[in-house]
Amino acid sequence: VGYFSLRKEILFAYIFGSQISGKSNKLSDIDIAVFINRKLVEEKSYRYGYQAEILSELMRHLKTERIDLVLLNNAPPLLKHRVIYYGELIYCVDESERINFQVDTINRYMDYKFLQRKIS
Questions:
Q1: d(C-alpha 60, C-alpha 18), whole Å
Q2: By the 8 A CB rule, do 77 and 105 touch?
Q3: Who's near 5: CB < 8 A, 6+ residues apart?
Q4: Rounded to two decimals, what is the model's pTM?
Q5: C or N terminus of the chain, fewer CB within 10 Å?
Q6: Where are the domains of the chain?
Q7: Closest to 101 measured CA to CA, from 25, 39, 44, 36
Q8: Looking at domain 2-119, does it have CATH number 3.30.565.10?
Q9: b/e burial code for range 54-72 (CB count within 10 A of at least 16 → b)
Q10: Which residue did the predictor score with more confidence, 46 or 108?
């Protein structure tokens, strides 16, 4: 959690997956999802290497290479829903932005489920 406070663009972060569900083993990775303020990250950096930079820093900070990093800003709707539904919030500096993200994610998920039922 201390790492995130060093990165002013990271507004909130979740841990999710096997580490939270209790199904982890010695080969399990750590699934981390972050939401960033895009205004604080140069567009070129965001498209070319930003995620790798954060991942590399997290690996050094946590002393493991078994990390899977998700940028929630552009994650698929079902993955976003999985993160907020099953994950655990581990860092947040902007509660308002987090709530907006969660409401938007749930609305999109409900739309998806509605369309899925109509098609079936």
A1: 21
A2: yes
A3: 91, 93
A4: 0.89
A5: C
A6: 2-119
A7: 36
A8: no
A9: beeebeeeeeeeebebbeb
A10: 108
